[in-house]
Amino acid sequence: MSDFHQNGIITDFHNLTRRPLEALEADLVGFSRRRPMSLILPSLYSELEGPALERIVTALAEVPYLAEVVIGLDRADRAQFLHAREFFARLPQHHRILWNDGPRLRALDDELDAQGLSPRQPGKGRNVWYCAGFVQASGRGAVVALHDCDILTYDRGLLARLFYPVAHPHFNYEFCKGYYPRIAEGRLNGRVARLMVTPLLRALKAMHGPLPYLEYLDSYRYPLSGEFSMRAEVLDGIRIPADWGLEVGVLSEVHRNHSTKRLCQVDLADAYDHKHQPVSADDPSGGLNRMSLDIAKALYRKLATQGVTFSAEGFRTLKATYYRLALDLIEAYDHDARMNGLSLDRHGEERAVELFAANLLEAGSAFLDNPGERPFIPSWNRVRSAIPDLPERLHDAVEADNRGEV
């Protein structure tokens, strides 16, 4: 059972009583009359062939309060897109698939690229960005949630708790982030959050003081979770990062645009398991190696906009400070795991910390060498300013694809 402690500057919704799913969903059905709800599912085609998405779609078919399900489909040819239409056809809710590799959406992407507005690299950020544009154009949802398609422990309770704080008509929250313990098969997981983000935030506070932004990020129990919900209008003004810094970037954007009194987090599950990324120590373009680099750069860029000055010497000090804090945390995690009957590979944990520490320097060098880098995809407000009818044409293109037009 979760505690009731409110730690930090955002409201925390705990799971204190294990309230029955039926009661939560009954409330959400009532809320949906005033605040219809849309769900975004960014997916690779390969995830249709795995066990997680099958479980997710089976559960979603029973959800009574959803107005719309929007699936962003990446890395799919036409035959695979047609298979995806069949795969998701069991959903009784209004649902549409964005065939991101199809000719219609590619043509729109070329038009955006000509204006310097197209996402610069493929990936989850690009997928989510196009889904966000479609949701706004469809106008079916007043509240929008997003979660990944590789959650092996998925159930309807996770989605109900994710929507609840933002969908409640008498709450004033505009954005909600999910959290959970990363435990699976008797192991303590979540290495990047535990071993990289937490000690890095504390090292940055030690060097630069308790900046409001750092206090804000440190208030989130799991800042790297892929589950969040928000009012539909929040999507208009946020810039979505195209790289692995997506989750931290979204948190940064809502902090920039909204009062912390309107932001919250919610305990979604007793346990959570999904596809685990390899460390990829020898490959900086993949796995936790690439993820840690992108997250570090995202933090540096955000702090620079708040007046923090970085230097090569400062990054070396940051590495040393981080490394000591991370090693201390490994011991705490090890003891916590042992008391709870969980396993933890201390050697593997220390090797991960060594990689992350090196990447703090690597990310710092990249930041200093290319201070003008623009990692964010422009907001949809800017797209509408440059090409006013593009969201509507995106909507029409998706509709044509889903009708099966060639």
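(ticket continues) Second input and output from the same batch:
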Amino acid sequence: MKPRLALLPLAALALGAGAPLPSAKDGASISVTVTDLRNAKGLLRACMTAAEDDFPECKRTASVHTASVDAAKGSVIFTFDDVAPGRYAIALLHDENANGKADRALGMIPKEGFGFSRDAKVRMGPPKFDDAAFDLKGDDKAMSIKMRYLI
């Protein structure tokens, strides 16, 4: 009986020997809670960029992180994963009709909700990158952004 007990731990080790080790993350996660959504219509679209000249459009750089989740009245949470350390800014759009663009009234007034990291203020246009930018040092980060509506 004693030899069997001695073999049991060795057998258990042998069974687990071929199992892959958990992989390390390539970067940090940024969890974003978006508050004050006025309804559950459409999608919440988010983009995050480190390129100052590509904010808030997030169209010209390959290093853009994007997310899209179903809208929900009140708040939603989404996450950017595997984000390298750096300085970033986030732009949000509540795309209520899910047409993939920011609809405007009179050619310039946003008809749908928007928001920016650090709840950067909007004055005669979107905020500058530096007003919305935050530093990511490598640890996971959580933040909250308030959705705003002008119409």
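Agent notes: The longest strand covers residues 28-37. Residues 24 and 82 are 10 Å apart (CA to CA). Closing as not reproducible unless the customer responds.
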